[in-house]
Amino acid sequence: MLTKLISGDNPRSPVLTVILLAILIGLAFAPFLFPGVRSLETAARICIFIVLVASYDLMLGYGGIVSFAHTMFFGMGAYGVALACAHMERGFLPLVVGTSAGAVVAIVVAFFIGLFSLRVRAIFFAMITLAVASAVAVLVSQLSGLTGGEDGLNFLIPRELTPAFTLADGDLFGVRLNGKLLNYYLVFLGSLGLFLLLLRIVNSPFGRVLQAVRENDFRAEAIGYRVVYYRTAATCISATVASLAGSLFAIWLRYVGPDTTLSFEIMIDILLMVVIGGMGTMYGAVVGATLFVVAQNYLQELMGVAAKALSGLPVLPLFLDPDRWLLWLGLLFVLSVYFFPSGIVGRLRQRR
Amino acid sequence: MTEIALHERLMKYAPLLLIPVLVLLGFLAIQSTSSWLTLTVSGLAMGMMIFIMASGLTLVFGLMDVINFGHGAFVSVGAFVGVTILLALGGMTGAPSLALNLLAILVAVIGAMAATAAAGWAFERVIVRPVYGAHLKQILVTMGGLIIAEQLILVIWGPDEIFFSRPEALKGAVTFAGAALEKYRLVAVGVGLAVFLAIRWVLRSTKIGLIVRAGVQNGEMVQALGYRLRLVFVAVFVAGSALAGLGGVMWALYQEVITAHMGQEMMVLVFIVVIIGGLGSIEGCFIGALLVGLTQNYVAFLEPKLALVSNIGLLVLILLWRPQGMLPVVKAK
């Protein structure tokens, strides 16, 4: 049953199994294990980014396609929900309408980008997606009448998902049973479902063909697989899942803006998470996203402490400044591309 | 000998003709001679600066099939080093003497180009060399290089954007036919043209240029003839980085503000130019850069909100017309 649920894709390493179980349990019981607003924010972020990174990994790790437009699809889902909530009556209907509208737009755009440019080599595709994504980001911030521009949109979600709503009187293990808790579990279960779906896809015959295309597209074509179709399909699936993750993110934050959904920084973050976690392994997304978001939220404090401790020395504190944490992750990124291209998960699996 | 039909001969030069056509279209759409002239000059200036940044990238790609997503880092580094020197020479830039101003700028440009050339050399050795022939790794690793370079700039120069003003001699505008033309833009057009002609001269009339052009066409053959293409490549990489640094200084003087992210932002324009020009082609890169500069300035005047998106429109149109870019040198696999 359990093996079926994860599509037969066992972690294949005791250490990895322990890590994954720890992350799963930690996220499943986050509101009870780590009480506090900030840690709940972190947990929800991890859930959403796992899905986003896993969907990117479907393209990069399994398909060998480098795209820089992934945040664009993420933003489509998020803005779909935001716009629907802003223009429709408060309730669950706008969430459904916005989510599906975002997903439809994402799939159509991905289809056209795919057909238009996947025939050419990886480098071309990477450059074109970079240009398209930046154009969309500019367009979103320019059309301030519709999208709120740089300020983004604040919107109302159903009362049942906000802290104002009380689920039951009293608390459970010291946690108040309110709408926020409900919202978290919506995010958690949604993410879990999407992740299992992606796991199913990569372990299906379709996923195998995709890997064959990645390894040698010429041979794959020669056996009779239409490479462009498979790549386009991978792009479309990946874009759809990314937009669904974006919708979850919007529902959780109750705010959508260019900086939180569309910016190039997030694209770089996704890239770092995929590569550090491990390309071509869905579990890499879990490990990478968790590591990254935790580092983003807590490594900075640690570095601040270290910088203070070394404040007597000449240059070192500058490098340990909390704002420079990305420098270290960038170094880790480059090193991992060179020395362990299969990332943390690939490394753990080797050492069975 | 078969006679070549006129339209076939014209097709060969069609990309070159695009620029005058675009300028004419701009004139028809804008209808006011003075604003059209101003916009054309600033479009050309912008195009020239983008060309300077993009030229190295396209040659590097043509020679070794290496695409450097970290090229933007050199733009930022050049801008920061150049501006730091300019600020240090405040006494010279503030003085109303043309000679002193030019000297200060010259020192800043040389400093910036030296710094980016050194950075390019290090970048090639450390980041690019281990990943020849692997496109996926190239993209990832050079992106990583960009992240690290950007963070190092933040470490050295701090997180705030730096504002400064141009040297006295380059401030203000000259009036020509009722249009105000900013002095600096005219200078930028001149410098860009000079750089383009210099690159063309090197490529067409020197031995090194011959090897580079042959290497872009068919690298294996050049190596078989006994030339060490690797050395040529490193030289082109370093020269391209230095040019990106020059472009960075010029762009900084144009904007009068620099941020660590500027390289990243310029990368998008640079990529568009390289793609529509045709990978590996220096002439295509030049035409592409001018087209992008002109289009952006015209559209910014006619419909400000669409200015930055207009480049994508241009990219799509050109790729629909010529999927490999306007003047492709390298056969895209």
TrEMBL record, chain A:
Its main location: membrane. It is a multi-pass membrane protein. Keywords: Cell membrane, Membrane, Transmembrane, Transmembrane helix. The chain crosses the membrane at residues 15-34, 46-72, 92-116, 123-143, 182-202, 228-250, 270-295, 302-320, 326-346. Pfam families: BPD_transp_2. It is found in: Cell membrane. This is Branched-chain amino acid ABC transporter permease.
